[in-house]
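Reviewers of the previous submission asked for a worked example of the structure-prediction workflow described in the proposal, so we include one complete record here. The input consisted solely of the amino acid sequence. No template or homolog information was supplied to the procedure at any stage.
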Amino acid sequence: MSIVAEWIALDWGTSRLRAWAMAGETVLAAASSDQGMGRLARDGFEPALLALVGDWLAPDRRTLALACGMVGARQGWAEAGYRSVPCPPVAADGFQRAPVTDARLEVRILPGLSQATPADVMRGEEVQIAGFLKAEPEFDGVLCLPGTHSKWVRISAGEAVSFQTFMTGELFALLAESSVLRHSVAAEGWDEPAFLAAVDDALSRPERLAARLFTLRAEGLLTGLAPELARARLSGLLIGAELAAARPYWLGQAVAVIGAAGISNAYSAALRRQGAAPRLAEGDAMVLAGLIAAHRIGREG
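From that input alone, the workflow returned the following structure tokens.
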């Protein structure tokens, strides 16, 4: 039986495109491709989308596709700009219409969020925040969204009040894959005690991070430090340094961690080590919930 979407939810990042055929808040079908923003020229977005969801489009009307993520970046399909905090994570204003030629399709892209001082931006995470607040509208505290560029976001009265970005995930990838540590750090594997000990080390003396990083290489050469242990310690040192800098966000606050299971569990363990009691929310589920919330706001607005 063929699927005809009432509307389509899109999570369009740098490397992946994910789509859901929707009827109200009900998912009828899901699909994904590797046609992320990073692989497409501006004239390639519509063909990539139609290749994935063309069979869901009604022949006699325009179907709205509501998109979030890097598709709205300056290098994306259409720049969706930013809304300044403090503000709700999504709102009816600012939806950017993308140019299309197919009469069956209407594409609107959600804007990101920005902060003037200190300068900061996010694009995509605001939808995860909206998804979390859809389920917990009374939440007052801090959201941690770990990833390539992790975000710490103060939430109050349904608004993102302020936020700070840390390049922890990108630093981990650069150090593990492109620095001298690539000879010492495994591509996979984990050791929880080694990770937590490194978190403690970095939290207590964050100014010694650069020196502690090189010990991973030296111990590999001198004492045969296992590459899996080195990987866990590298992650612990970087996340510990992040927690040290983000302490004003999480100390004494209600905290929730939103993201993929592996990295979220690591951040949660590190926070619990410091006496926090973070709750966990699955990142993909929050994206879809946030797009549903944005669709409802757009109709009501």
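The chain is about 35% helix and 25% strand. We consider this example representative of the routine output the project will generate in years two and three.
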